[in-house]
Amino acid sequence: MSLNLEVEVDVPFTFDYEALAGEVVAFTIDHEGFPYEAEVNLTLTDNEGIHEINRMYRQIDAPTDVLSFPMLSYEQAGDFSALEEDYEDNFNPDTGEIMLGDIVISVDRVREQAAAYGHSERREFAFLIVHSMLHLFGYDHMTPEDAAVMEPKQRQILEEMNISRD
């Protein structure tokens, strides 16, 4: 598994965010049973940076906490059986890994939301990565039915990693 980290801003976290990101990405890949070696790109930016990306790609003129840009499409969320036929088009020829997609996180929002929810910045950062990884696997939360599948998965992954709302 490769995690390509791009840091666009000063990151004031008191934990090793690069190590945590790698652990969360790898754990989520294993948890969901993704059958290939994978590559994920993670960009850390600020509210201004994510606002611009949100405006450019989603036509939403506001900052957000995390954006997910999946490279793969699924007939059904978490069903990797049809990927083999498209595998050739979705792998990095340099590494042989399948490119799952891009995650963009606002460091500002991690800090704001951790304070608002009363838990650690470490927990919020991990949550946003799990949330985004599930989007990269085709899960969504736009309907109550979809949320009923995705949200318990998020909780279960964080619980299994012993990342609590301390």
UniProtKB/TrEMBL annotation:
Quote the function comment for this protein: Single strand-specific metallo-endoribonuclease involved in late-stage 70S ribosome quality control and in maturation of the 3' terminus of the 16S rRNA.
| Major subcellular location class | cytoplasm
Q: Keywords in alphabetical order, please.
A: Cytoplasm, Endonuclease, Hydrolase, Metal-binding, Nuclease, Ribosome biogenesis, rRNA processing, Zinc
| Single GO cellular component term | cytoplasm
Q: Which Gene3D superfamilies match?
A: Metalloproteases ('zincins'), catalytic domain
As for family, the record states: Belongs to the endoribonuclease YbeY family.
- PROSITE patterns documented for this protein: UPF0054 (PS01306)
Subcellular location per UniProt equals:
Cytoplasm
Q: How is the cofactor bound?
A: Binds 1 zinc ion.
Binding positions (Zn(2+)): 131, 135, 141
Its domain of life reads: Bacteria
EC number from the UniProt entry: 3.1.-.-
Does the UniProt entry include the keyword Hydrolase? yes
Cofactor list: Zn(2+)
GO terms of biological process kind: rRNA processing
Q: What is this protein called?
A: Endoribonuclease YbeY
Species of provenance? Roseburia hominis
GO MF: metalloendopeptidase activity; RNA endonuclease activity; zinc ion binding
List the residue ranges forming a coiled coil, or say none: none
